[in-house]
Amino acid sequence: MGILETVKEIGDFTWEIPPWAQEGMLVPGIVFADRELLEKAARDNALQQVANVACLPGIVKASMAMPDIHWGYGFPIGGVAATDHELGVISPGGVGYDISCGVRLIKTSITRAEMGDRLREAIDLLDARVPKGLGTKGRLRLDRGEMERMMRKGARELVDRGIGWEEDLEAMEENGRYPGADPAKVSERAFSRGRDQVGTLGSGNHFLEIQAVEDVSPTAEGLGLFEGQVVVMAHSGSRGLGHQVCTDYVEVMGATLGRYGYRLPDRQLVCAPVRSREGSDYLAAMACAANFAMCNREAITHWIRECFEKVFRAGARELGMELLYDVSHNLAKVEEHTVDGRKRKLVVHRKGATRAFPGSRPEVGEKFTRSGQPVIIPGDMGTFSYVLVGTEEAMERSLGSTCHGAGRAMSRKAAKKRVRGGELKERLEREGILVRTDHLAGLAEEAPEAYKDVRDVVRICEGAGLSRVVARMRPLAVIKG
User: Fold this and answer.
1) Which of 5, 55, 140, 456 is the most exposed place for a label (fewest CB within 10 A)?
2) Phi, psi (5° rounding) for residue 322?
3) What is the pLDDT of residues 267-282, one digit of tens each?
4) Alpha-carbon torsion 135, 352, 384, 442, what sign?
5) pLDDT at residue 412 above 90?
6) What is the DSSP string of 361-420?
7) Residue 56 to residue 154: CA distance in whole angstroms
8) Catalytic residue positions?
9) Could you tell me if 344 and 337 are in contact, meaning their C-beta atoms sit under 8 angstroms apart?
10) What's the pTM?
């Protein structure tokens, strides 16, 4: 019997893989989806990965998956799993290679009508000023000491250097500084790979988009969003540094699996006890990569503001270029949650999933007490992106988690076979979306048809109570690495 045949519907857009579906499962699997997306997840083996994750030592509640679920390294992308802080494990595959890959949204006071013909000038200037592409070097050159300070202090280090605004920090997850970072736990190879990459987009699915806000809810006003508003979305992560941290600790933990006697259904789930030397070292190195990623997005924001100042011949503050929020969707975080009626300290792995806390959680901060924590959801470059907010119901149902994007429906290889980059660029521009890229083959990998319909994903998350829709944004111009 396959995993799909064991699944039963237990609520609105909620499906359960029972613990008897596979030997070794310690908790059920819970998938938030409709029937169509559930079957897609089964076809690409992602449901099997949900069951595999349920075998992790110390896992609590359930192995969960969001509606944007698709196959990943060890964990499915769109996966959420919490382990007990004292008795459980930490797994690099539950975070992924692009540690703290995340999204931020920068507001403006500019309307779509005011943008007018300056849209082309703006995207051309951004294309010239924001470094992008595989292995690209950034505009900042940092020595070893500066890198270490950035890893410890996070975005505060750049703000203190005049790169970014003080008020940006309160609109960032963890106020721009992930705790517990120790640069001594980061390899020389990781230092080398990240040294020149602060303020760079990278390649793959990373992007920068100028968008127009539409379809706002009453909550939007409190977040400073309005119909017709121009906003800028940036999606990037920890670049080569984060990739190397993951590579290093997959190797370290793989070599120590026998010591702890773990029997895993997939070696890509390599892990170590949270309280072990390997586990604590990984968490410290992961925090360094997370702080690097937040600095990366903060520097990109600085370049974006500079470009808009030049195009509109006005200061960024005058143009209302405030940060709405910056949130990661590839992290493991130590959080307190109520499970089976009692509060527990957990390590919550979110891989291709976003924290979605209600305003009552202290981590959210006073700025978002009334609205709940903003969640930034990119779609694909041909349709829409969204701003959501977290809910109280999500705390019970998904450990305060929701989706992270549309989720791939087609592999990059398959997309390149089906779509020609040049033809895609022409098609998008006929639809009124300006496109800038140096690599048409890479553009083809990110074609709209390679992704699920983000409208369905967001509808399911709202229907399951994991988050609420605040606003929808339509792409006007996009830069792809």
Assistant:
1) 5
2) -85, 150
3) 999 999 999 999 999 9
4) positive
5) no
6) SGGG-GGGTTT--EEEE---TTS-EEEEEE-HHHHHHHSSEE--SS-BSS-HHHHHHH--
7) 31
8) 404
9) yes
10) 0.96
